[in-house]
Amino acid sequence: MKFIALIPARGGSIGIPNKNLTICGMLPLIDHTINAALGSKYLCETYVSTDSGDIAAHCISKGAEAPFLRPAEISGSESPMIDVAEHFLNWCKSVGKSVDALVLLQPTSPLRKAHHIDEAIEHYLDGGCNSLVSLVEVPHNYRAQSQYEVNGRLLKELNDSNQRHVRQNKPKRYSRNGPAILITNAKLLLSSKKFYLDPIGFIIMDKRSSIDIDDSTDLEIANLLLLNDEK
Questions:
Q1: DSSP β-ladder status, 148-151 and 131-137
Q2: Given 20, 24, 32, 134, which is the most exposed site by the fewest CB atoms within 10 A?
Q3: How far is 54 from 67, CA to CA, in rounded Å?
């Protein structure tokens, strides 16, 4: 089965200017994802979809492939990621490149490593699923039993106040961690225009590896962790 990685990396960024090329742990942010993809024993090729010539040139210099620039109409801050994947897979068809499964790797997950990708692909192969997503456990203080609504200056409990839950008794919940890894059957993605296709498999990643760079605080935390790894 042919697994091909796609790293979406548009040039614009609202929270962090030029985010994908911002230094994080001594490397541009996107380099961590390129290195993880190139280190995978299952990924056949690694492509970058970007609307930026600078990002494309940088990624090519690091060993990834960026044979086209993404059209402006699917490169905005609110452009659906499914459109980016569909554009890439249609490009693959136009050049006669076969893809069995698309492995979407967000460049905002710099602590996701090659072994996480390989674990996900192995689960995908063994689980008989059409798609697979990486998850992280939701911290106990963010689970439903600890949530409130805010009404002006007052709080409204969403749960029975008499049903207090100690941390150990709160049921575990999981959330997509970006996601750092999303694998989808390429043919079904094109026909359905969906990433999440039943049956859906998963892997659970630890909190550290699941950091998703959305703002400057996330970047600062990831930078500190990566610099510590370099020591």
A1: unpaired
A2: 32
A3: 13
